[in-house]
Amino acid sequence: MTRIKDPSAAAAAEADLPWLQRYIPLTRRVAADLSRTTLRGRRLGLNVHLDIKMVPVVEALVQAGAQVVVLGCNPHTTRDGVAALMAARGAKVYAWAGMTEAERQEGFRWALSHECEFVSEMGGELLAAVVRDGSTSRQTLRAGMEATGSGILRLQALRLPVPVFNWDGLTLKQGLHNRYLVGLMVWHTFINVTALTLYARRVLVIGYGLVGQGIAEYARLLGARVMVCDIDPVRLVLARQQGGEPVSMREGLARAGVVVTATGCDRVLGADDFPHLADGCILANAGHSNLEIDIPALRRYPTREVRPAIEEVAVEGRTVYLLAKGAMLNLAAGFGDPLDAFDLTSALMLAGIEFMVQHHAAFPAGIHLLPSDVEHRIAVIATGPLSPSQ
Ligand SMILES: NC(=O)c1ccc[n+]([C@@H]2O[C@H](COP(=O)([O-])OP(=O)(O)OC[C@H]3O[C@@H](n4cnc5c(N)ncnc54)[C@H](O)[C@@H]3O)[C@@H](O)[C@H]2O)c1
User: Is the CB of residue 34 below 6 angstroms from any atom belonging to ligand 1?
Assistant: First the structure.
């Protein structure tokens, strides 16, 4: 049984679809070519951000005959209209905005009861739940796919009984999406939410992977002075090479007007760090976890909402501001990736799912980079006459 907040919310989300469809030619093409023979009757679990851009993916899988079970991978990014629209288009959905942790766990149990053969997700939590499950869902699982660095870290810690395809490591995902789109959209959302510029602001980026590099680069383009903190000294050399100032955490916190976390790890900014923040500092997170900034520890200080998606926190005589409750800023308080750019990602996801169902039996248990043939196919279409820039 589907469990969503409001079935009637589907109509508003549906009104957005024609504009979206116009700008996702690659996804439409891959969707049209999906093999019904491969997908018909297959039980597929998706644990993804329930953003409008995921609707064509779900719809294509349903139309190809798959039985699609959907969870939202982050209650801060779930849109109730999108959950309702996916249900209206034939998926079974268990998700609503602002679910509690207990409700999320209930959602995982609900998904396990569907005994999915294949899982495609963002964050690795459904696969982890299946792997730890004592019931038949573990026996039924054939393969998985993971889209995020945080999810790959989570899955690496498990003894996986099936092959899991990492598509976060592909050039189209890392080199374009992670490196450029997140940075662009984090600052777009920052400006929308705060109504502030970055001119002459000191920005501290914590975590200088591709996501952090994109965030740093766009901050510089928008006039910020960028400091970088990373536990990996090699990444710090890279940051210096690219115009950033490597700093220790304490030094960065004392000087930064804006702090953005992008590490893929929990509590990188924790209780011991908060008293070192400069007065007026604005905190935001771009990493997958809602706990990169230790929100429960920050909430021990007096907190009040001062604008939508901005909370003011009184930390030992100073005032700091938290954006989007510490969830991924660009998704929780913005519209995530631009539609045309995300076309590559959603096309890749659909093609990857088809590959996983067709070829999983040829791979041993464990994590494998999704073979580059899949992204090559998408890249060939993308640079041909269907190019989104046409
Ligand atoms: N907001 C979005 O839309 C979006 C999109 C893609 C990926 N992500 C997420 O962004 C995060 C980062 O992704 P990535 O591909 O850059 O990862 P990455 O693993 O390449 O880089 C993370 C960096 O953080 C550093 N780090 C880890 N712990 C740290 C600590 N305590 N202090 C300082 N530095 C630390 C690591 O050394 C590494 O250099 C992941 O959680 C990923 O899922 C977000």
Answer: no
Question: Of all protein residues, whose CA lies closest to atom 6 belonging to ligand 1?
Answer: 178
User: How far apart, in Å, are the Cα atoms of 364 and each of 119, 147, 152, 163, 367?
Assistant: 16, 19, 17, 6, 9
Probe residue for ligand 1, chosen from 73, 178, 266, 345 as the CB with the greatest number of ligand atoms within 8 Å? 178
When pLDDT is cut at 50, 70 and 90, the band that residue 174 belongs to is confident
> Nearest C-alpha to atom 10 of ligand 1 is from which residue?
287
Chain segment 272-296, per-residue pLDDT in tens: 999 999 999 999 999 998 999 999 9
268 lines ligand 1 (CB under 6 A): yes
Residue owning tokens 């979206």: 20
pLDDT digits (tens, 9 = 90+) for 214-259: 999 999 999 999 999 999 999 999 999 999 999 999 999 999 999 9
Q: Do the bridges between strand 143-146 and strand 303-307 make them parallel or antiparallel, or are there none, so unpaired?
A: unpaired
Domains of the chain and CATH, by start: 7-173+337-382 (3.40.50.1480), 178-332 (3.40.50.720)
